[in-house]
Design brief:
111 residues; mainly alpha; 5 helices
């Protein structure tokens, strides 16, 4: 029963909600890009869910659990930020395929 309660509490975490919403947005944009470029492959969608979604959520959960156990409360937000950066890169790639390039100011490294 404790495992179920912990899972429900995890899904109530705002960072998990943002992460899942971002994954959903990435999936929709990637589908749109695949349709536009006529490269839609349902196996790639399944691979996205198993290769990206599941590992990202597991990394965040592990960082949160281990961080709390070790007294390192900043570990989960750091893991979340790293995952968000990876998702933003995927989103940028899909938007580029749709012809919607990110503004240069957002993609250019600062000096």
């Amino acid at each position: 029963m404790d495992i179920l309660a912990n899972l429900i509490a995890l899904l109530d975490d705002p960072l998990v909600k943002i992460l899942l919403a971002h994954v959903f947005i990435n999936l929709v944009v990637a589908l749109a890009a695949a349709l536009k470029t006529r490269t839609l492959d349902l196996q790639r969608i399944a691979a996205f869910l198993t290769d990206k979604l599941l590992p990202y959520v597991l990394v965040y959960v592990a960082a949160k659990v281990l961080g709390q156990a070790a007294g390192l409360d900043a570990l989960a937000p750091i893991a979340w930020a790293a995952i968000e950066l990876a998702l933003l890169q995927d989103l940028t790639d899909s938007l580029n395929l749709l012809g919607l390039a990110m503004p240069a100011i957002l993609t250019k490294a600062r000096d």
